[in-house]
Amino acid sequence: MNMETDKQENEQLQTPQVFFRNIIFNDGTQIDLQKNSIVVFTGPNNCGKSQILKDLEHELNASTDIKPIVVQSSKLTFEGEIDNPAFFNSRFFLNKNGRHQMIDLKGYSGYSFTLNDLKIFWSNKELHNEMHKLFVVLLSTENRLTKSNAIKRVDSSESHPIYKMTKSEILAQKISEYFHQAFGVDLVVNRNELQSISLHTGQAPDPTAYNFSQHDQYYRLINQLPKLHEQGDGMRAFVSILLDTFTTSRTIIMIDEPEAFLHPPQARILGRMLAKDNLDNRQLFIATHSEDFLQGLVDANSENVSVIRITRDNKQNNMSILKNHDVLELWGKPLLRYSNILSGLFHEKVVVCESDYDCLFYQAIMDAIYESRNETSPDILFAHCGGKSRIKEVVKALRAVNVPVVAICDFDILNFSHEFKPLAAAFGLDWDSQLANYMKTIYDGVNARNSVANDENNEWNRLKKIGKNGLQGHEPAAYEAVENLCRSVGLYVVPYGEIESFDKTTNKEKREWVYHILETYNLTIESKLDNARKFVQSFVDFNPN
User: 478-489: per-residue pLDDT in tens?
Assistant: First the structure.
């Protein structure tokens, strides 16, 4: 009777799991998490993305003396019981001293426990002596190229991802399907080798076409396929992430630079897979510098993805969190999904222009300015969005994660109040209280001249070519006030009309004008471009703080 009761109690013990409930960073920012949260850390170089992953692992390790740098504190959720029979027997072995050691750390760690030790640590919600490695895996770039190598049958535990593939055809087929999406060939596990288990790539033979008596013939075909560990870095790195992510029972997965060794299409596919197929009881923490990987996460339309952009100010790491619903609302729009705007998360500043030719001209001028000083150009992304009307969406999305952003519009933006108002609002300006009176002065004057000319667009067409120099009466003072307000938040109106107005001696359409300027002039010293250089320097120097 007692034996039966013990058996029933053991069956009722839930599998132990650990999750982050929340994380507080060193700037005081807090993020609350669910069991299936996917948190993506982005930002410029050396901002602390990779360090956060190390900090989080230290947060789980109750025995470490290492102080976290970017993470201030965290709270964990413990579920289940450490002595769950299925879990315990698959993770521990009994050493010669009668103590329990972790199977995955066999040969690497001398830590051993009594069952009572483990139960006390668990009840205290503390993971001592590398117990945290039962629940978390940190996938660094250093070991990514070897994780998918063939394994020796004698030395490998049943928890090894490749070993698991030998035991489950469903799992092996799932991994192969993922691999096929990225590389167009199959990934096959060779179960027939006596001493090792290897993975092969290529066109897999159809197993249903071979009966038991043809077993040897089937595996001869597999042996002829190229071995994965002899293939390129991209394939091996991709498979390593698949294996560690989709075969593990660990509840916390950390991936540093998942895009490493991958071409952009594979990085995007990997991002989509991780977001779309994440389990309900697994947290992903990812540090990335790849627009393509991030784009894949957005493509998945997952409600569990949060994006944290990190910037660094001396020793302070500043966090800007774009939570789940904001990611879908702001970054799920076609304009952002199918452009290079997402790259802005990895730059110090973004300059948004109306067209790609504007971007080309302004970036060339900026580079010329800094080359003449023997200085490196600032880390600025120039991006276009196909016209004035779309700029506001880009500004909203970038400002939501505190990316410093500048928008440059031709002078005629002032004429299109239905576009100027929402753009100003995207930068945080209040039209009625800050701009309306000044703009009324400009509109009244320009419209009066249009009435005299009996042409409602004549004066605005002229101003598009000459900018503020065409304003009269009280209009210049009103424009100066508008310009100062707009520039204070990052909205820059071309004061001379449009980029072609920087050199009126070149009478060409925008595209040909830009090509002519770049191919003909010395951008550093050409006097005709003095105003262009001053204008570019003004928005390069813009600091939202």
Answer: 999 999 999 999
Weakest-pLDDT range from 207-211, 416-420, 474-478: 207-211
Q: What residues have CB less than 8 Å from 423, skipping those under 6 apart? A: 388, 391, 392, 395, 407, 409, 413, 491
pLDDT for 455: 62
Q: Are the CB atoms for 137 and 250 separated by under 8 Å? A: yes
Q: Kindly provide the residue ranges of all beta strands, DSSP E only, lying in 176-313, ordered along the sequence.
A: 186-190, 196-202, 252-256, 283-287, 305-313
Within 10 Å of residue 117's Cβ, how many Cβ atoms? 16
Give CA 146 to chain center in angstroms. 25
The per-residue pLDDT for 78 is 97
- In which band, very low, low, confident or very high, does the pLDDT at 456 lie, cut at 50, 70 and 90? low
User: H helices of 85-226, where?
Assistant: 85-91, 115-123, 161-167, 169-183, 215-224
What mean pLDDT comes out for the span 104-109? 64
Q: At what angle do helices 356-372 and 510-520 cross, to 10 degrees?
A: 20
- Rounded to two decimals, the pTM is 0.86
Confirm if 222 and 108 have CB atoms less than 8 A apart. no
Minimal CA–CA distance to 424: which of 397, 392, 452? 392
